[in-house]
Fold these 2 entries.
Entry 1:
Amino acid sequence: MAAADQIPVTVLTGFLGSGKTTVLNHLLRQKELNGVVAIINEFGEVALDHLLVESSEDRLALLDNGCICCSVREDLIETLADLAARRAAGTIPPFHRVLVETTGLADPVPVLHTLMTAPDILGRYRIDGVVATVDAVNGVRTLEAHDEAVRQVAVADRLLVTKTDLAADDALARLDAQLAAINPVATRSHVRNGMVDPAKVLDAGLFDPVARSADVVRWFDLASQAANAPHHHSDHHCDGADCGHHSHHTHDAGVSSYSLIIDEPIQRDAFARWLDYVAALRGEDLLRFKAIVHVAEQPDTPIVVHGVQHVFHPPIALASWPSADRRSRLVFIVRGIPRQIIENTLCKFAAVGRAAIQRSAA
C-alpha cells in the first residue's frame, strides 16, 4: 500500500481520572467521526446505547454519525488486521481513520511500537499523532507520583487539559508550566466537560505523506524555538549564576527537551547509522524524536523521521523544500541524555561537522 493510502491512527491516552472517557464520549457524538473506527477499551464505559444503529456480538457497533466502535481484542495487532480485512471484504463500512484509546494505566509507548513495527499492519496503517488528557485538578500530583503519566505527556503531540472549570487559576498555571517543562513542543488546549473540537484530536498531520512541506517545516521551526526557549518551573527561584538550570526544559523525573539545527546535508547511510547507535545506546531514554532532514543524496526532497525510544518509523519523503532554507531540524524529548552526547554522536557516527550544528533556533 502506498504511503498516501495508509490509514492514519490517532492514539488517545491519559492517566486514570484525567477525563479521557469524557472526551471520548463527546467525540463519538460528533459528525466529524463519520468514517472513523474508534477502538475503545470497554463499551460499558462509554454511553453508546442511544447512538447505536447496529451492533454485533463480535464487539463491533455502528453509531448514527457513521463512526464504527470496536472494543479492543487481546491483541491490538489482531484487532487492526481484522478491521483492515473486513474493510477490504466490504463487511463493514469503509473507514479512513482509526482512533485508539489506551487504558488509564498504560504506557502508550508499546502501542506506538506496535503501529511502527508490526508486519501485519505496518503497510496498512500509520501513526497520525498522540493525544494525552491531563486532569487540571490533580495533574501536578499525578505527574509527580506516576512515571506512566510523565511518559504519556512526553510522547504526546497534543495535550488536552481537562476539568479546567474546577481548577484554581494558580493550580492551572502551575500545571501548564509543568507540561511545558516535560513537552514544550506539544500543542496544549484547555477543555471543559470533555467538549473538544475533533480537529484538536484527529489529523495531527505532521507525518502525513501528502502534508504540505511548508506546514511541516513551520512546525519544526516553532518546535525548535519552544524546545530551546528558557523555561523554569513556576515554583523554582533562580539565585544567580550558581543556579543549576539550563536553557532547555527540565523536569524532576529527568525529562528534558532540546533541538538542534544542522546547516549541511547529511549522508543517508551515515544518518541511519547514527539512529541505530542512539537507539542501541540510549533508546530507552529517547522518549520522542522528530526530525526533518536534508539528505545529501536527495537534496530537493526533505525526509521526516520520528521515533519513540528505540523504534523509528520509516522515513517519509516530502514533495519539496518550501524555501531556500534547507537546514535539518532535530527535536528531542529525552530522559537523562545531555545535549552534548547527541552532538558528539552526530559528529562521530553521522559525519556531521561540529561547526554545522546550531544549538539555538533561528
Entry 2:
Amino acid sequence: MFICLVLAACGGDNNTPTAAPAPATATTGSASVPATAATPPASATVAMTGTSGTTTSACANPTHVVLATGFTPNVGNAPYYIAMAKGYYTANCLNVEIKYGQVTNVYQLVSDGQIQFVLVTGDTLIPARLKGVNIKYIMATNQKYPVGALALANSGFSLKSPADLKGHSVGYSAAGSSTYVGMEAMLKAANLTDNDIKPIQIGFNEVEALTSKRVDIAFTFLSNEAVQMRALGYQVQTLQLPNTANLISSGVAAGDKLIQEHPEMVQAFVSATAHGLKDALADPSGAFDISLKQLGDLSPDKIPVQRDVMTATLDYMQPPSGGHPLGWSDPAGWQATQNLLQATGIISGTADPTTFYTNQFAEAAKP
C-alpha cells in the first residue's frame, strides 16, 4: 500500500486504532537525534530555534500543542516541517508535536481539546460535524482535491474527460472514503450515475487491481499513487476532477472550544503554518530537503520518487484564486461538498456550511 497523505482520506476510519509506524526522530537545532523515551509513541516533537535561516523565539515557555496528521511521515506535510525547521512555530510561542498514526476518536479528542489540531478534508469533517463533533476547518493547505482517476496507458481506451468513465469497471478504496467521493464527483460532472459504471471496492490495492485487469480505472491520490506507478515502470493516464466539482481538500481543523477560548493560539498556529506553506511554494527544493529529514532511512533509489511526489503535491497547494490569502477555503466549496455527500447518501442531514469552517485566521495570517 502506498503512503496515504491525509488522515482518513484513503477510507480509513478515524476512530480505528492502527499499529504505530516506525519511531520518528526529534530534531533540535541543526542536529537530528533519536526520539527519547518521553516522546509519545507514533509522535515526533521538533523544536527549532536560532539555526541558520530560522526565526528565534523570544518566548520563554512555548505552549505545547499536538497536530494529528495520520499515517506516517511524508512530504505532503512539508508546510509543517518547514514551520518547525525555520522556527516559525517557536517564534509564535508554540511547541508543536506531530502525532503520526491513526488515533482512536481523534476528531472527538480535538473537539474536547485533548488534541489541538488535526488534518482533515471537507468530506471527513462534514459528517463528523453533523454527528455532533465540534471541530472546525481553520485553514486549507491544498486548494485542489487530490483524488482523481488513474488507468494504464495501454488499457485500450482514453481517459480524457469524466464521460470516459461510462461503461468501465471503476475501483475505489471504501464506501464513504475520499476516493469514493472523488468517483461520485467525477460521475456527477458527466451527468452519470453508478449505474453507468461497474463500481468495485478495491481497498488500497490500486496497482494490483489495475495490472490484473480487475478494474479499468481506479480512483486514488494522483499526487502519490500515479507517481509511484510511473516509478515502478508503468505508463499511466490520469484525470483530475474538474474545477466545477469544487470539493474542499486537505487542511487543518481545531475544536470549537479551542477557537473560542484561545483564538490567539489558533492564530499563532495558522500564521506559522501559512509561512511554512509560502516557503514550500517559493522554494520546492528547500522544502524537499527539510521534509526528507523526516522520512527516516530512505534508500537512495527512493529519493527521486519522493521528490516527484513533492512536486506533484505542491501543485495541489498553489495559492487560491481571486487574490485570497494562503489558507483560505472557498465558501462555495463547502456547500458543494455537503451537497455531494448528501446526494451520495454519506450524510442524511445538512447544516449551515458556515459552521464547518472559518477564514478569519487565514485572512489575518499575512505570512
